[in-house]
Amino acid sequence: MGTVGRVSTTVLLAAAPETSAPLVGPLRDHGFEIARPGVRADVVIAGATAEVERLAAEAPVIVLGGADDAPVDRVLAFRRGCDDYLPPPFHHEELVERIRAVLRRRRAEPRVLFAGELRVDEVSRVASLGGTGLRLSHREFALLAILASEPTRVFTRVELLRWVWDWPAATTTRTVETHASRLRRKLRAVDPGTPWIDNEWGVGYRLIGPHLEA
Fold first, then answer.
1. Is the pTM higher than 0.90?
2. What is the CATH class of 112-208?
3. What gap in Å lies between CA 156 and CA 49, rounded to an integer?
Protein backbone atom coordinates (compact mmCIF):
# COMPACT_ATOMS: atom_id res chain seq x y z
CA MET A 1 0.00 0.00 0.00
CA GLY A 2 1.44 3.33 -1.02
CA THR A 3 4.51 2.19 -3.00
CA VAL A 4 5.18 -0.04 -5.98
CA GLY A 5 5.72 -3.65 -4.99
CA ARG A 6 4.18 -3.30 -1.51
CA VAL A 7 1.80 -6.25 -1.07
CA SER A 8 0.77 -5.97 2.57
CA THR A 9 0.41 -3.49 5.37
CA THR A 10 3.72 -2.89 7.13
CA VAL A 11 3.94 -2.30 10.86
CA LEU A 12 6.97 -0.83 12.61
CA LEU A 13 7.30 -2.04 16.20
CA ALA A 14 8.96 0.89 17.97
CA ALA A 15 8.04 -0.13 21.52
CA ALA A 16 10.49 -1.78 23.93
CA PRO A 17 11.65 -5.29 22.89
CA GLU A 18 9.77 -6.98 25.73
CA THR A 19 6.57 -5.33 24.43
CA SER A 20 7.23 -5.71 20.71
CA ALA A 21 8.51 -9.29 20.59
CA PRO A 22 5.20 -10.98 21.59
CA LEU A 23 3.38 -9.01 18.88
CA VAL A 24 5.43 -10.23 15.91
CA GLY A 25 3.77 -13.62 15.53
CA PRO A 26 0.14 -12.49 15.93
CA LEU A 27 0.60 -9.56 13.55
CA ARG A 28 2.17 -11.79 10.90
CA ASP A 29 -0.64 -14.31 11.38
CA HIS A 30 -3.09 -11.54 10.45
CA GLY A 31 -1.19 -10.71 7.27
CA PHE A 32 0.87 -7.75 8.44
CA GLU A 33 4.52 -7.34 7.48
CA ILE A 34 6.92 -6.30 10.22
CA ALA A 35 9.02 -3.38 8.97
CA ARG A 36 12.74 -3.19 9.63
CA PRO A 37 14.03 -0.14 11.52
CA GLY A 38 14.65 2.69 9.08
CA VAL A 39 12.05 1.43 6.60
CA ARG A 40 8.91 3.52 6.10
CA ALA A 41 5.88 1.71 7.52
CA ASP A 42 2.12 2.09 7.18
CA VAL A 43 1.57 2.07 10.95
CA VAL A 44 3.91 2.49 13.92
CA ILE A 45 3.37 0.80 17.29
CA ALA A 46 5.09 2.93 19.93
CA GLY A 47 5.60 2.52 23.64
CA ALA A 48 7.20 5.80 24.64
CA THR A 49 5.15 8.99 24.49
CA ALA A 50 8.31 11.02 24.04
CA GLU A 51 8.88 9.37 20.64
CA VAL A 52 5.40 10.02 19.26
CA GLU A 53 6.03 13.41 17.66
CA ARG A 54 9.02 12.13 15.69
CA LEU A 55 7.28 8.91 14.63
CA ALA A 56 4.00 10.63 13.72
CA ALA A 57 5.81 12.65 11.06
CA GLU A 58 6.31 9.42 9.10
CA ALA A 59 3.17 7.30 9.72
CA PRO A 60 0.10 6.97 11.95
CA VAL A 61 1.08 5.94 15.48
CA ILE A 62 -0.65 3.70 17.99
CA VAL A 63 0.77 4.02 21.49
CA LEU A 64 0.75 0.99 23.79
CA GLY A 65 0.32 2.47 27.24
CA GLY A 66 2.00 1.29 30.41
CA ALA A 67 0.29 -0.24 33.43
CA ASP A 68 1.12 2.84 35.51
CA ASP A 69 0.11 5.44 32.93
CA ALA A 70 -2.17 8.20 34.19
CA PRO A 71 -4.86 10.00 32.14
CA VAL A 72 -2.43 12.87 31.61
CA ASP A 73 -0.08 10.44 29.79
CA ARG A 74 -2.83 9.58 27.31
CA VAL A 75 -3.64 13.25 26.77
CA LEU A 76 0.05 14.01 26.18
CA ALA A 77 0.34 11.18 23.65
CA PHE A 78 -2.56 12.56 21.60
CA ARG A 79 -1.24 16.10 21.83
CA ARG A 80 2.05 14.87 20.42
CA GLY A 81 0.29 13.33 17.44
CA CYS A 82 -0.65 9.72 18.15
CA ASP A 83 -3.66 8.32 16.29
CA ASP A 84 -4.74 5.86 18.96
CA TYR A 85 -3.82 4.81 22.50
CA LEU A 86 -4.22 1.26 23.77
CA PRO A 87 -3.89 0.74 27.53
CA PRO A 88 -3.04 -2.64 29.03
CA PRO A 89 -4.17 -5.30 29.27
CA PHE A 90 -5.23 -5.83 25.64
CA HIS A 91 -5.79 -8.78 23.36
CA HIS A 92 -3.89 -9.14 20.08
CA GLU A 93 -7.20 -9.09 18.20
CA GLU A 94 -7.98 -5.65 19.62
CA LEU A 95 -4.64 -4.29 18.44
CA VAL A 96 -5.25 -5.72 14.97
CA GLU A 97 -8.66 -4.04 14.76
CA ARG A 98 -7.27 -0.74 16.00
CA ILE A 99 -4.59 -0.89 13.30
CA ARG A 100 -7.28 -1.48 10.70
CA ALA A 101 -9.39 1.35 12.11
CA VAL A 102 -6.45 3.76 11.86
CA LEU A 103 -5.89 2.68 8.25
CA ARG A 104 -9.59 3.17 7.45
CA ARG A 105 -9.43 6.72 8.77
CA ARG A 106 -6.33 7.38 6.70
CA ARG A 107 -8.12 5.94 3.66
CA ALA A 108 -10.52 8.86 3.89
CA GLU A 109 -7.61 11.06 2.81
CA PRO A 110 -7.17 10.97 -0.99
CA ARG A 111 -3.91 9.36 -2.07
CA VAL A 112 -2.32 7.19 -4.75
CA LEU A 113 -2.40 3.44 -4.17
CA PHE A 114 -0.21 0.84 -5.85
CA ALA A 115 -0.73 -2.92 -5.95
CA GLY A 116 1.72 -4.56 -8.34
CA GLU A 117 0.95 -3.12 -11.80
CA LEU A 118 -2.28 -1.61 -10.55
CA ARG A 119 -2.38 2.14 -9.83
CA VAL A 120 -5.36 3.83 -8.18
CA ASP A 121 -5.23 7.63 -7.86
CA GLU A 122 -7.89 8.70 -5.37
CA VAL A 123 -7.15 12.38 -5.98
CA SER A 124 -7.91 12.38 -9.71
CA ARG A 125 -10.10 9.24 -9.46
CA VAL A 126 -8.13 7.54 -12.22
CA ALA A 127 -7.12 3.87 -12.19
CA SER A 128 -4.75 2.07 -14.52
CA LEU A 129 -3.32 -1.41 -14.94
CA GLY A 130 0.13 -1.72 -16.45
CA GLY A 131 -0.20 1.84 -17.76
CA THR A 132 -3.56 1.18 -19.43
CA GLY A 133 -6.42 3.31 -18.13
CA LEU A 134 -9.50 1.62 -16.69
CA ARG A 135 -12.99 2.99 -17.33
CA LEU A 136 -14.77 2.42 -14.04
CA SER A 137 -18.06 3.52 -12.55
CA HIS A 138 -18.08 5.44 -9.26
CA ARG A 139 -18.77 2.29 -7.21
CA GLU A 140 -16.32 0.16 -9.18
CA PHE A 141 -13.58 2.69 -8.51
CA ALA A 142 -14.47 2.83 -4.80
CA LEU A 143 -14.43 -0.98 -4.58
CA LEU A 144 -11.06 -1.17 -6.34
CA ALA A 145 -9.61 1.52 -4.05
CA ILE A 146 -10.66 -0.43 -0.95
CA LEU A 147 -9.17 -3.68 -2.25
CA ALA A 148 -5.95 -1.93 -3.32
CA SER A 149 -5.54 -0.29 0.08
CA GLU A 150 -4.57 -3.69 1.56
CA PRO A 151 -3.87 -5.83 -1.50
CA THR A 152 -3.81 -9.32 0.02
CA ARG A 153 -6.39 -8.82 2.75
CA VAL A 154 -9.79 -10.46 2.32
CA PHE A 155 -12.45 -7.79 2.80
CA THR A 156 -15.73 -9.24 3.99
CA ARG A 157 -18.99 -8.56 2.20
CA VAL A 158 -20.21 -6.69 5.29
CA GLU A 159 -17.15 -4.40 5.27
CA LEU A 160 -17.54 -3.64 1.58
CA LEU A 161 -21.25 -2.87 1.92
CA ARG A 162 -20.49 -0.49 4.77
CA TRP A 163 -17.46 1.27 3.25
CA VAL A 164 -18.38 1.40 -0.44
CA TRP A 165 -22.17 1.67 -0.28
CA ASP A 166 -22.71 2.86 3.32
CA TRP A 167 -25.36 0.18 3.72
CA PRO A 168 -26.16 -1.75 6.93
CA ALA A 169 -24.74 -5.24 7.35
CA ALA A 170 -28.20 -6.84 7.32
CA THR A 171 -28.93 -5.64 3.77
CA THR A 172 -29.96 -8.44 1.42
CA THR A 173 -28.44 -7.64 -1.95
CA ARG A 174 -26.03 -9.03 -4.52
CA THR A 175 -24.60 -5.63 -5.43
CA VAL A 176 -21.14 -6.55 -4.07
CA GLU A 177 -21.05 -9.69 -6.19
CA THR A 178 -22.31 -7.80 -9.26
CA HIS A 179 -19.78 -4.98 -8.98
CA ALA A 180 -16.92 -7.36 -8.19
CA SER A 181 -17.78 -9.37 -11.30
CA ARG A 182 -17.85 -6.25 -13.49
CA LEU A 183 -14.59 -5.00 -12.02
CA ARG A 184 -12.96 -8.39 -12.61
CA ARG A 185 -14.01 -8.36 -16.26
CA LYS A 186 -12.56 -4.87 -16.79
CA LEU A 187 -9.24 -5.83 -15.20
CA ARG A 188 -9.04 -9.06 -17.20
CA ALA A 189 -9.78 -7.16 -20.40
CA VAL A 190 -6.39 -5.52 -19.86
CA ASP A 191 -4.65 -8.58 -18.37
CA PRO A 192 -6.52 -11.73 -19.48
CA GLY A 193 -4.08 -14.10 -17.77
CA THR A 194 -4.78 -12.93 -14.23
CA PRO A 195 -8.02 -13.35 -12.19
CA TRP A 196 -7.36 -10.11 -10.24
CA ILE A 197 -10.52 -10.25 -8.08
CA ASP A 198 -10.57 -13.36 -5.89
CA ASN A 199 -13.79 -14.45 -4.19
CA GLU A 200 -13.00 -16.24 -0.94
CA TRP A 201 -16.21 -18.25 -0.74
CA GLY A 202 -18.26 -17.35 2.30
CA VAL A 203 -15.79 -14.67 3.41
CA GLY A 204 -15.31 -11.87 0.89
CA TYR A 205 -13.02 -10.47 -1.80
CA ARG A 206 -9.35 -9.63 -2.25
CA LEU A 207 -6.95 -8.75 -5.03
CA ILE A 208 -4.92 -11.53 -6.60
CA GLY A 209 -2.29 -10.98 -9.27
CA PRO A 210 1.42 -10.67 -10.13
CA HIS A 211 3.55 -9.50 -7.18
CA LEU A 212 0.59 -9.88 -4.81
CA GLU A 213 1.42 -12.85 -2.62
CA ALA A 214 -0.77 -13.89 0.30
1. no
2. mainly alpha
3. 34
